[in-house]
Here is the input.
Amino acid sequence: MRSRLLRLLCASAAFLLLVALSGCSEHVAAPEPIRAVRVWTVADGTITESQEYAAELLPQAESRLGFRVGGKVVRRTVQVGQHVKAGQLLAQLDAMDYRLAADASKAQVASAQANLDLASAEFKRYTGLREQNFISAAELERREANYKAALFQLQQTQAQAASQGNQTGYTSLIADVSGVVTAVDMELGQVVGAATPVVRVAQDGPRDAVFAVPEDKVGAIQIGMSADVRVWASGAVLAGVVREIAPSADPVTRTFTVKVALKGADVPALGTTVSVLPRRMGSASKEGIKLPTSALYGSGEKSAVWVLDGATMTVKKTAVTLGEVQGNEVLITSGVKVGDQVITAGVHVLTDGQKVAVYQPKDPAAASVTKK
Here is the structure.
């Protein structure tokens, strides 16, 4: 009897232990934390669309100068940014070979002159003999032909000597206009070829504000249109007029180059960064619902926002249609209405129907911005 009771108690204890162990193995799922989000109350807004373009100040005319003969550079007298005057020496080539060639041409001229003097004397003497009938007419014609050949030979050598003298002069690169040196593409000891541009000079005179315009905007710009040119550094506004529009688009950027001529004598330095606002284009204001771009959530080829249901404190994904974008703001043409509360932070980690809480910053000023 005792052994049976003992076995019963052991079985009861084992059963209770098994129940306890099975209860410990059960996993109780933790409740999903409520995510804090920032909200934006939808209101009407205005975005100003301004057709203002960044531009650079460039000369209307730029000379690309190069030697008319080839040779080794032995002297360079200018640097980038230096102002030069017309007739000023910019660079010099080694002219030794050209001088030797010029001396040879002078010697040929002297030889041709001696031949001409001899032929002239013979022709004069044979002319007298012919007058006395001591020689035939054919003999006199041969002497005359010799004289003319010597004369033409002299003229040829004189022309060659003049050309060779010019070649010597071409070893000096002279500025043909006054202006500012914008580039120097040579070094001492470098051998350059004939007609290779080695110095660029921005000519003194009118300046252009040059900028690029997209294909869909170039039609609104016309030659002769007035424009305001604002200097980025000082904020000064200069008057200008559109003087040139590229006839074709750049093959890479698909933009058109536009040049605006500046008026007045007080023009900033070359390369100054400016902005150009064609007056006829001006700026246009568009009314609508305005949201920060951080509220947008990509969904395939469409955009959406998360709208907060204040009663249940859950979020719902709502597709929207975008309008103009300016900086960090975008106009919404459809999808939300005035008074809706839109999530502006953490939009990429939310799910439809998820419970959220409105983030309450400690700084009162920041809180007013969040609830705007």
About this structure: The chain has four domains: 35-48+286-370, 67-93+171-204, 95-170, 206-281. The first helix runs from residue 2 to 25. The CA atoms of residues 123 and 143 lie 5 Å apart.
